[in-house]
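Would you be willing to look carefully at the protein I have copied below?

:::
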Amino acid sequence: MKKITSIKTRITIWYTTLMFVLIVVVLSLVVGLSYQLSIDSVEKDVILQVTQVTEKLSKRQPGVFEIVESKEEFKNVSIYGTDGKYLVGQYHYDVETIPFRAGLPRKERIGGKDYIVYDTRTPGPRGAPGGFWIRGVESVSSTMLLGRSAIVIMLVFIPLVLLLAAFGGHYITKRAFHPVNNIIKTANEISSQKDISRRIEIAPDSKEDELHQLSVTLNRMLDKIEHLMRQEKQFTSDASHELRTPISVILAQGEYLLDLAEDEKEKELAQTIVEKAKQVSTLVSRLLLLARIDQHRQKFNKEKVDLGVLVDIAIDSMKDFASQKEILLFSTVEEGTIVDADEPLLLSAITNLISNGIKYGNESGHVTLSVSKLGEKTEIVVSDNGIGISKEHLGKIWTRFYRVDDVRNDVYGSNGLGLSMVKSIIELHGGSITVKSEVGKGTEFRILL
């Protein structure tokens, strides 16, 4: 059974259940108490009538039998001889077989009916030893009917009250949790659209309760986060821009020193300077590109791009690098595959994926690039049979500066920005990129434009 996770649903169920228990308990007590009071009332009425007749008999008033016969208030009283023979009064055929027993009133059931029976014995007049039995009898069927009617009312009333309580509880909790829905909606929009400028909508006439304060607090937090992110992006952009000139100078001086080097030691030192300067130059270029994309300042010139030509250019630029590890490069492109794209940016993304396949491929391995049409979309797949990426790292490879293996990446001069840059470029084109990998078997990147 699926566990109920909605707070609104749980509150509504709890509220309705509590109402059900309270209604059942209260109505049960009311019905039970009413029934008992009715029985008590019947008993008192019977005792009163029997007592009045007993008092008259005790005074030996003549015509007492006639009083019992004619008086309406004595309609439930009859007088019997000591042998149980009916003498006078309201004769009750249903209870004639019940034995006489003096004492408290009792409930007797005869012929499927319930009666309150009260017996008392009084001495007889002079010359009539043994006395009389005086019996009061009153049916409680009307009281039972009242109880059954109350039960029927409960069976009709309780569902209506519960239905009203459920709808009312759901409506109240829905209204109360409306700010929570706004918070969830805004959070999802920020996550899906990556738009940190979104804020939680707060109605001008909303009550300043805890959820209102939470919404205000979250909006303030988002303001602070947006401000800090803008500062970070601006710093990255400014720092990268300022570093370009000195890095270009270092690279130029290093290449000049490499040309002037007279021995192997000097050449080795100059070559190290050139290589590191190129790595830093690549890093700065990527940082600038990412900063411009983040700030929506990146120039994006869409044009018709023939992917067949683009793939050939990418593979040609990587041939020398691939030959160093004896890795073969393969490509298959459906003829006439044209996309609307910024050619330099898309070329940079594809080249980066091929470069990764070479860097982390096995000696004498291969990297394959294929392009095909999928309905209205175009799919680009870059795969290799290299060392692969473990599952624990797959979800993090798009994070900036994240490197799966620092030692391995240092060998290739990786800075952890390549895949982040690729993802940003593909998303800038309105596309998506996914990855599948298995350690020891290789990695596959799939781009959908």
Notes: The chain has eleven helices and twelve strands. The chain has a mean pLDDT of 79. The radius of gyration is 49 Å.
